[in-house]
Amino acid sequence: MALTGLEIYKQLPKKNCGECGPPTCLAFAMSLAGGKASLDSCPYVSDEARATLESAAAPPIAKVIVGAGENSITMGDETELFRHDKKFYHETAITLRVSDALSDEEIVARTQKINDLVFVRVGLEYRVQAIAVENASGDADKFVAAVTTVAKNSGLPLVLISDNPDAIAKAIDIEGVNKPLIYAATNDNYETMTKLAIERNCPLAVKGDNLDDLASLVEKVVALGKKDLVLDPGARSLSRAIADFTQIRRQAIKKKFRPFGYPIIAFTTAEDPLEETAEASAYVSKYASMIVMNTVEKAHILPLLSWRQNLYTDPQVPIRVEEKLHEVGNVTPDSPVYITTNFSLTYYSVEGEVEATKIPSYILAVDTDGLSVLTAYSDGKFEADKIAGVMKKLGLEEKVNHRNIVLPGLVAVLSGKLEEESGWNVIVGPREASAIPAFAKTHFA
Prior knowledge:
Elements: H1 5-9, H2 25-33, H3 47-57, E1 63-66, E2 73-76, E3 93-99, H4 104-115, E4 118-121, E5 124-127, E6 130-134, H5 140-153, E7 158-161, H6 165-172, E8 181-185, H7 190-200, E9 204-207, H8 211-223, E10 229-232, H9 238-253, E11 265-267, H10 273-285, E12 290-293, H11 298-312, E13 325-328, E14 337-341, H12 344-356, E15 361-366, H13 373-378, H14 384-393, H15 396-399, E16 404-407, H16 415-422, E17 425-428, H17 436-443
Parallel strand pairs: 3-6, 3-12, 6-7, 7-8, 8-9, 9-10, 11-12, 14-15, 16-17
Antiparallel strand pairs: 1-2, 4-5, 13-15
Helix pairs in contact: 4-5, 5-6, 10-11, 14-16
């Protein structure tokens, strides 16, 4: 059981030095009890106290790493039930299934399609993170051959799905297979699977038949010495799985129930790819750290990755671009200049429409703390004096040989003051970004 704040306080040095962040040891103890601080922040804690406080200092959901190097996946290490309380940290790893029942050519083709699932949206790169190789054939040799083919053709981390420990052991030894997630330890094989995971230093999925069974099985695996685990409560219907995942998350965070303090893996079951995407979206929301899916089509994956990005963005810190003079196309000193804010969605909407004009142009992105045009104006962060100051700071007058600048139509009221502050001729542009191509054709073609 987790320790209370007062129990933790008794183990601390009581210096009240503030070096840990909070002003007093009692405040630090309360933060530890709530999973909001790390014991490593205290420079004076004794070895004896550290051993006693280990469980209290650990995050309510353990951090588990799958794979190695730049493509490795970090799961867990979460502290919240709801993102508005703080934020979610490690985004759900979208993992696509490859069956060993496919031919070698089909496996290569499917793996390549998975590798190609990379998208750039609002300046961010979206991608799937892993490949799950499934021993659907039941043949160990086919499974090893399939893993070999996937490893040769992709650098993504792997999930090895088989109930045959010998097949998994052989697959782990394949060149290019680095710290895969072993799926799964069950009541029938947990001793063998746990021993294998410990020997090969691989994370291990634990699959129960229900929540009680899962908790009991996790305790057995942990008692054998394995602690980097991923949980599967066994439910495959969406409603049952969501209910189980929610209970696991609540028990881990609110009750500090250690057998449930690990990341969760989900498996989609819908045959229709659109229904599968909707199912996966629900799992991203509640509270899967990894989802194993079947569809590999871009049209199905992109909406899911977009939703994931929205959910894992800090709700208190909008996505923003750098405040600078951005170039669209091969600009010249005669290129027009548009003004907008540095809110990513606003900026990239403007950039896309400016690019569609086929007229090389500059876009001046003003830092408004990531707020959109009208919101920033209402908050006093998109005013004429600030815009003029950014124009001067970025040396705009040295980039172009004209003195014309396009102001968003939503803040046309700023045009007169901006002309006074900057000395430039202000052209009031359209209210919506979608009207930029027609506007540019009229003014700059």
